[in-house]
Amino acid sequence: MEKFTEITGTAAPMPLVNIDTDMIIPKVFLKTIKRSGLGVNLFDEMRYDREGNEIPDFVLNQPQYRDAQILVAGDNFGCGSSREHAPWAILDFGIRCVIAPSFADIFYNNCFKNGILPIPLPQEQVDVLMKDAEKGSNARMTIDLEGQTVTTSDGETFPFEVDAFKKHCLLNGLDDIGLTLEKGAAIDSYEDSLGQSRPWV
Predict the structure, then answer these.
(1) What are 46-67's pLDDT values in tens digits?
(2) Can you give the pTM of this predicted structure?
(3) Is 152 helix (H, G, I), strand (E, B) or coil?
(4) Residue 197's pLDDT is what?
(5) Please, what is the angle between helix 105-113 and helix 85-93, to 10°?
(6) Which residues pair with 119 in a beta bridge?
(7) What CA–CA distance (Å, rounded) separates 110 from 123?
(8) What is the Cα–Cα distance from 178 to 30, expressed in whole angstroms?
(9) Mean of the pLDDT values across residues 95-116?
């Protein structure tokens, strides 16, 4: 998993509440078990018409937001089913951070396991960040995980809270497999001792 320390980039404004996982990645795209390739279908039903043409008014189809690394959204982001394809699609598009007043619990935890930083902030602070994002690609926001701050293009800074263990995993690029591999020496030692004491196992 790619490490997350600090990013400075364009933030896309999406002031919708209750954006569920089916909106993020519709169920028709859940056939794959690969984490890559889903970015093109992120928000598919909002991004494309029935003929597969881009809908110009949708935020991620606008030139200034095509390379957005940050998403500023409404309350209860990621609600609905627990599909892990939702963070896969967000990350594959290139978004590393989602800011909203609140998140669905399962989606929130899945983000950390896939290298995405979800930041819950009070509504009034999200409103400020939403207005900053609406300025387009010239307004670049900075997310500092080590310092736990979000800084607007105008220099206004908001602190955020994050679980210490989840922060450690993001800073070091550790998913569940990476965490297990960190214990590789201890696992090898245990298997060696087990083989000697219980060779029939």
Answers:
(1) 999 999 999 999 999 999 999 9
(2) 0.88
(3) coil
(4) 81
(5) 50
(6) 99
(7) 23
(8) 25
(9) 97
